Automatic annotation (TrEMBL):
Composition-biased stretches (Polar residues): 162-174
A GO molecular-function descriptor: FMN binding
Protein name: Pyridoxamine 5'-phosphate oxidase-domain-containing protein
Source species, domain of life: Eukaryota
Family annotation (InterPro entries): Pyridox_Oxase_Alr4036_FMN-bd (IPR024624), Split_barrel_FMN-bd (IPR012349)
Residue span(s) of domain Pyridoxamine 5'-phosphate oxidase Alr4036 family FMN-binding: 11-103
UniProt-annotated stretches for the region Disordered: 151-187
Organism: Dioszegia hungarica
Length: 236
């Protein structure tokens, strides 16, 4: 039997997700999920990414990527994604369907403003999250606070997926990069790496929780119906 949950602000799956992951922000057993996108031919491609934040006003899930990876190209063609998120300690699987967008980062691009407008309307961003400034600030904050030096350096390396025969010797690659520097040479490296760093934003349209510790198992689904979310309790 389906029931409708009226939402003034927060979708009903938000407390369900937060209950499991809050307080575990630094633990990959809680932050890593498999994200499936569709390539240009419409074929599924899946890989793990790290959950970074759930935005407070619009309940958008944020992860990060290198603009030169396959994900941003996939999302330019198809916004539909699905995620499988397994939390082994509580024995819970979240399966989330959504619409995903790469947040534009190249402010010098002539279509930067119009692209941003399309992304924010696709995300149905609310409050200050409907403003470019929120995302620019969050990108900088995550670059500084959430990326390790090793991860920051990875954004300055040759394009991911390029044959090793076509790139510089890996032993010459920087192992680590600071978030900021006054040294002109290091600053150039940081600017180059940061130009490849992007936020990937996912607006969930369907959310399923499967609880395996309970006997019998419990499977609950929430589906976005516009103003409301439909809640269904189904056989596992
Ligand atoms: C535990 C784990 C976490 C990862 N986190 C991220 C991430 O947050 N963002 C990312 O772009 N790639 C991440 N990766 C690497 C991706 O799985 C993948 O190899 C890379 O993004 C290239 O995928 P693509 O070319 O399909 O975009 C992670 C891999 C693992 C195993």
């Amino acid at each position: 039997m389906a029931s409708t949950v009226r939402v003034s602000q927060t979708p009903p799956w938000v407390p369900v997700l937060k209950k499991q992951i809050d307080g575990h922000e630094k633990d990959q057993d809680y932050t890593a999920y498999a994200l499936a996108t569709l390539d240009k031919e419409g074929l599924p491609k899946v890989r793990y990414v790290i959950h970074r934040i759930l935005t407070p006003a619009s309940s958008i899930l944020i992860t990060t990527t290198d603009t030169r990876m396959a994900k941003p190209a996939h999302l330019a063609a198809h916004h539909t994604v699905e995620m499988a998120w397994w939390l082994s300690e509580p024995a819970i699987q979240f399966r989330i369907t959504g619409q995903a967008y790469t947040i534009p980062s190249d402010e010098s691009a002539s279509d930067y403003d119009s692209k941003f407008g399309d992304v924010l309307s696709g995300l149905k961003a609310k409050g200050d999250e409907a403003e470019k400034g929120y995302w620019q600030k969050e990108r900088k904050r995550l670059w500084t606070e959430a990326m390790s030096g090793h991860l920051r350096a990875s954004f300055g390396r040759p394009p991911p997926g390029t044959s090793l025969s076509e790139v510089s010797d890996p032993s010459t690659w920087d192992e680590s990069l600071p978030a900021e520097s006054d040294d002109p040479e290091t600053k150039k490296k940081i600017d180059n790496a940061y130009s490849h760093f992007a936020l990937l934003a996912i607006r969930p349209t369907g959310f399923e929780q499967l609880e395996l510790k309970a006997t019998p198992n419990i499977r609950t689904q929430w589906t976005d119906k516009g103003e409301d979310w439909e809640e269904r309790h189904v056989a596992p």
